[in-house]
Amino acid sequence: MTEQFEFTTNEHNVHDTADTSVFGEDVRSDARQIIARYPEPRSALLPMLHLVQSVQGYVSPAGIRFCAEQLALSTAEVSAVATFYTMYKRKPCGQHLVSVCTNTLCAALGGDAIYRRLSEHLGVGHDETAGTPGEEGSITLEHAECLAACDLAPVLQVNYEYFDNQTPESALDLVKALQRGEKPAPTRGPALTDFRGAERQLAGFFDDLESTVAGPSAAPETVRGAQLAHERGWTAPSMPDDAELPPLPEKR
Ligand code: FES
Questions:
Q1: In terms of residue numbers, what domain contains 27?
Q2: How many Cα atoms within 13 Å fall on the side-chain side of residue 201?
Q3: Distance from the alpha carbon of residue 45 to the mean position of ligand 1, in angstroms
Q4: Residues 46, 118 within the same domain
Q5: Which residues are annotated as a binding site for [2Fe-2S] cluster?
Q6: CATH at 108
């Protein structure tokens, strides 16, 4: 059974007494760099939570306390944010996070069948991990809401990188390759790392910027409309200078 922290009436005691020594001087130096990007330390909370996940693979009680100490927030304020967003994990994530879009368009085109096939193969359900979290070949599976790539449905992501136009068979081949320790190339975007590596990038650290930006960035399906408009000389009408704008509501 994987470790998971639960939010109970005494949750803040858990966070306030957690041992933060897992965050060594190198992480504290990264934290200072993140905080320096913002006029107010508290504004750095979202990338700080990604930094914590890059170290531990989830937002642990120690991670909550570390963020609170670094940003002069209470542990209650940090945990309120960490539990609001699904990208912040409350139990240790696998080496790879596989997110299958099962929102309307992907589901209709096979997303549900993809999720079912992967769930059967891995023997886990939503937000569960096959294998020991963090170890090579371990996979956390999750349902995802629309991944903003409906023109390429059905899609899935591995560590937030896209694999477009999937089938149950192609998705299964992909997951088996991940379990063997391989890192197949995403359809678009940078080469695969692992969940913790992706979290470091989300914290704003690109240790190998060249390879991070090397992948294809746009699918032909996505830019087809713009290309057709360009070929046919279609443009949107410009805004007339004397256009009447609706009145702004009064501030209360
Ligand atoms: S419904 Fe799957 S990407 Fe939009």
A1: 11-82
A2: 20
A3: 28
A4: no
A5: 101, 106, 146, 150
A6: 3.40.30.10
